[in-house]
Write a structure and sequence with these properties.
Blueprint: H1 14-19, H2 22-37, H3 40-62, H4 66-97, H5 104-117, H6 122-127, H7 133-146
Helix pairs in contact: 2-4, 2-5, 3-4, 5-7
Length: about 150
């Protein structure tokens, strides 16, 4: 999902349409719509500007050498991306899972995505932008218990 709520654009691949059923696609579409409705792009922009400002202030205040500045910037970027992405994905998941007609679609979609993408390894843990399929399945099962 790109853009702001007054100009949203959702891009779904053809492969997604071919591999997911109606209930699974409903979850994907609601998840992406959640990013738009909840203004995640604007929130991320504001947080990134804040972190950039802190980084520039710290650089100027402590007069960091160039190499240390680059390392500091890379570290802050990594932390910012991980916190923003994981946080917005979690909130979009909560939004969508509470609105789907059939939470089983979330579970079956996660099983399909897990089989195609995998879920193991330290690099996946460090660089994943989404919460784990296991966590999403757990959220869907909690919803099913409340229905």
């Amino acid at each position: 999902m790109v853009g702001l709520p007054f100009w949203p654009k959702m891009i779904l691949s053809e492969g997604l349409y071919k591999s997911l059923n109606k209930d699974e696609l409903e979850w994907v579409i609601l998840h992406e719509a959640g990013h738009c409705v909840l203004w995640h792009n604007l929130q991320a922009f504001i947080i990134q500007i804040g972190i950039l400002s802190v980084g520039i202030y710290t650089m100027l205040l402590y007069k960091l050498p160039l190499l240390l500045t680059w390392l500091y910037a890379i570290f802050l970027s990594f932390v910012c991306i991980q916190i923003l992405r994981w946080g917005t994905e979690y909130v979009a998941d909560r939004y969508s899972i509470h609105r789907v007609d059939n939470p089983k679609g979330v579970i079956t979609a996660q099983d399909k995505l897990r089989k195609s993408n995998g879920e193991k390894g330290i690099l996946i843990l460090l660089f994943r932008w989404n919460i784990s399929p296991t966590k999403r399945i757990e959220m869907a099962r909690q919803r099913m218990r409340r229905i």
